[in-house]
Write a structure and sequence with these properties.
- This protein is an all-alpha fold.
- It has one domain.
- A hairpin with a 3-residue loop joins strand 1 and strand 2.
- The longest helix is centred in the middle third of the chain and has 30 residues.
- It is globular and about 65 Å long.
């Protein structure tokens, strides 16, 4: 199903031609400028405040002053606690302005630009997923003009806004490849996926989810070469970072070392399902090496890799001994990912509405036999899976909110359901051959 088919209303077809041609670029520029100006204005109205003490910012300071990825928790030695691209970007304004509020402001403006660009891509994603331009423009406008998840969209100290942009780009690339899976598109997918994982390791879950769904829906003779090539290219992109980690840390870490620590900080006697609650607790300051001198000493003694592995073993032992508590926490985390608690009630209500509209839109796409519902839903659900076992936050949900908006915008798609082929399978330009 393509947006230029005979069922497309004339107005939508006209807007599609505008988007896909030179005039379409103007739509993207308009959306981007609207979103960026709004976010920069809101950021400027807020006092930059103190210099952040997040691990990414500390590593960026070390990178800007010493040229090394180190000091995630202070004086803790070489580090791969964070994926490399975010500290690298943050190091630029720190090098220019020093570790000052001015550098923090510049970092937040960079994050705002990333999220604004991500929303500007939603019309392209809607067209690529067969919904047409009108739903995409509505989704883009809603995202640009109503910054519900404000902190995640404007904070460049965290990776959420950049991950949001990468997920949207990846989704466009995958929708354009879906079904046919041409090898040339596999190269693009692998390249973007490798860069995305060097920004946010959780995006790897989306790639795995796409591969699993594609294997179930499409001929393996297309799926296996495509995802094999894409995976190989992604691994090649990440290999220099893995080599650096082998030299500096003694282990070829392809993304980051923090999983064991995050698993432990999410599953113990003192923590809840919400990250925002946990970081304010006294237990956090006792258990996390960013605040605890005892834990920091352990990181220095053992090194990040061994320290994180030890924390993972402690977490798994706790889960084994507290199955009911772990199940309760996991249930709460799933609920909070899809229906997050926000600072204000109206934000909480709007985030819940986004989820419900996305569910309704996905159902509409299934009923209309739109094949692109599979990569969209797989991306959203796949990215959420790690937050079954890890504490969650609205910031962690933000990378897939573009997909959530596009799914919700499917309610505006007025196309008729696709016809059936031989009374059984949807008549698709691809994936209708079930032979393996």
């Amino acid at each position: 199903m393509r947006p230029q088919d005979a069922t497309t209303p004339w107005g939508a077809a006209f807007l599609t031609r505008m988007w896909m041609g030179k005039s379409g670029i103007r739509w993207g520029v308009i959306l981007f400028c609207m979103g960026l100006l709004l976010r920069v204005a809101l950021v400027m109205l807020r006092t930059p405040g103190d210099v952040p003490h997040w691990e990414t910012f500390r590593i960026a300071q070390s990178l800007a002053t010493k040229g090394s990825y180190a000091g995630a928790f202070g004086d803790s030695g070489p580090s791969a606690h964070c994926a490399p691209l975010l500290p690298l970007l943050q190091a630029i304004p720190i090098r220019m302005f020093g570790p000052t509020p001015r550098a923090t402001l510049a970092i937040n403006i960079m994050g705002s630009a990333s999220s604004a660009l991500g929303y500007a891509l939603l019309p392209t994603l809607a067209v690529a997923s067969g919904l047409g331009i009108v739903p995409g423009i509505v989704a883009g406008l809603a995202g640009e003009l109503i910054p519900i998840n404000f902190m995640a969209q404007t904070s460049g100290v965290a990776d959420a806004s950049y991950a949001f942009l990468f997920v949207n780009v990846l989704s466009i690339v995958m929708c354009r490849a879906w079904g046919a899976f041409p090898p040339r598109q596999a190269l693009k997918t692998g390249l973007v996926m490798g860069l995305a994982c060097l920004m946010n390791a959780g995006i790897l879950q989306i790639f795995v989810a796409w591969a699993a769904v594609a294997a179930l829906r499409c001929p393996l003779r297309r799926v296996v070469p495509f995802f094999g090539i894409a995976g190989l290219v992604a691994a090649c992109v990440m290999t220099p970072w893995a080599i650096r980690n082998y030299i500096a840390l003694g282990s070829p870490i392809f993304t980051r070392t923090n999983f064991g620590l995050e698993l432990y900080m999410s599953n113990n006697d003192y923590m809840t399902a919400e990250e925002s609650v946990n970081v304010k607790s006294q237990a956090f300051h006792v258990l996390h090496p960013s605040d605890s001198g005892v834990e920091l000493a352990l990181v220095r003694t053992l090194g990040e890799v061994a320290y994180s592995e030890g924390k993972k073993r402690q977490a798994l032992a706790w889960i084994e001994q507290h199955k009911e508590r772990f199940l309760a926490l996991s249930t709460q985390r799933v609920a909070l990912f899809w229906f997050p608690h926000m600072l204000r009630l109206w934000q909480t209500c709007l985030e819940a509405a986004m989820t419900l509209l996305a569910l309704a839109g996905a159902i509409v796409m299934f009923r209309k036999r739109n094949p692109f519902v599979w990569p969209l839903t797989a991306a959203a659900v796949g990215y959420s899976l790690v937050y079954i076992i890890i504490q969650t936050s609205p910031r962690y949900r933000f990378p897939v909110e573009g997909i959530i908006l596009v799914l919700g915008s499917a309610l505006l798609d007025r196309r008729r359901p696709r016809p059936l082929h031989n009374g059984r399978e949807p008549l698709m330009p691809f994936c209708d051959d079930k032979k393996r």
